[in-house]
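Page header: ASSEMBLY MODEL / two components / 604 residues total.
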Amino acid sequence: MMKEPPPARRIYRKLFISNIGFLFLAIPLFAFILFIAYMIFYLFSNGINVLSWEFLTKPPVQGMTAGGILPCVIGTVYITLLSLIFSIPIGVLAAIYLAEYAPDNIITRIIRSAIRSLAGIPSIVYGLFGVALLVRGIGIPPSVLASGVTLSLMNLPWIIATAEEATHAIPGSFREGALAVGATKWEAIRHNVLPFAFPGILTGILLALARTMGETAPILFTGVSYYTSGLPQTILHKFMALPYHLFVLATQHDQIMKVRPLAFGTAVVLLILVLTFDAIAFIIRLRIAATNKWQV
Amino acid sequence: MKLRRSVDRGVRILFSANAVLAAAVLVGILLFLLIYGIRAFIPTSAFDPEDPLTHPVKIISFLFGTRWNPDAYGQPRYGIVPLLLGSVITTFIALLLAIPLGIASAIFIAERLKGGVRIAIKMLVELFAGFPSVVIGFFGLILLGPFISRLFGVASGLNILNASLVLAVMSLPTIISVSEDALRVVPYSFREAAYALGASPWTTALKIILPAARSGILAAVLLGFGRAIGETMAVLMVAGNAPIIPRSLFDPVRTITTTIAIELGESTFNSIHFFALFALGFILFLIALGTNLLAESLIKREKRSFTL
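Prediction written out in full:
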């Protein structure tokens, strides 16, 4: 009474049509990947001949129409590192709390939801908050410090999200093993969870670092400067930064076409810095995936 | 033993304090924007009946005013409508492009790619999400701008179309990765059941998996919206920035974010103008917060619907 199974040809035709369908879905993805590749290629091919030892180690001269970008590189490094000095300890500790200690109740849910929402707040709003709280509220002048703290508020939720995920991914049996031989909860976390979660936490920090370097809106009003002579003497001085320098050379400078090569060079240096830290983060993530069998 | 117990308790308190501190940042932003923004609507200490620059803004003319012109001699205008319209139009056109392209890409990644290739492509998408927005804006300025101006024969390529294209590209990574997650959350048994009934992988993906993941995909769209409406620097570089109500795709446009970026530096502290910019920031904050909370609850709902 059973019906004949469909002939193999019909199945093949069905699969063929199915694959054609997926092929169409793949087009936008490959177009997007090509776009990213072309953009990187275009910027590099235009900017690479500007790059030189002089470009990296000399300040801008002659009304920023010549010279290098040393103060911008240094400024970007300063504010990025300063922001991480604040956000790494707070972020990692908060993440461990959320992953390991937080009871599943309404307060935890509010805290978690608030931190997640922070990640979606536009960066210009962080800039406003920096002006209101740090510059006008506390009275820190627009400076490396004010910008660093503003950026740390912005990258805090990124660090928490990845660190919580990395800690959460360690299986319960790791903790139970330590607890069974008499360790306190902290000792179990300290010795049996954190060492294994560390590479994942580090990945998150590196990705946060890369993204922070490229941010402009939060530093616009909290200390970045069109031009400073020399490097910032203290963290209470104004500074120059790579992304803002690129913005200025591209749109604000009064000899836009003359400084175009310098703009390309600045874009390439910024891109190289960002991509390098992203690449390190991805290599670590691939190694985690390859070595830790408990993480899928 | 006693020492170890108290260390354990101390660590717990220290860690929880940091979590509370991080969450308090959100409350801090809300409060500061509110306190600063609201002062645009009440007379400040500098109030002078003779000087229109010191007159507080009426809430009605802020929300419904169709002109934004803080520098006008005699009568400064703080109507948010052209700016809000600028933000919404550019974001809307961007999403019109990015939603279908993003969801198509997500289906392909989730249903067809495996192992190393999938990880590599997801990383590339994430990499682009972290690209400095000034670099993307620079690209739009020097390449897309002249291209649009030549292709359509318009005087300037810095307009709504350019801003929308740039925003489409910038919201794609968010839409792709959140929808891909949403599709992967659908249990494998759904696919097996469909295959057992004779459905092809293509039919399964479109008719079974996509509808099952709809709330997660809606969340992806919302987060893409949040990303696009909050973008500042890239839009600032390619949108032309005239605070007028646009009439065509080739008109320049000014968004909420770019207005803050352009004007905060030149407004004097404690002026009505300065506080009005915080009021703009507060509106932007509310839009972003609402979008995020809604997206989060949609993602949770999808996950819950698959747990028995």
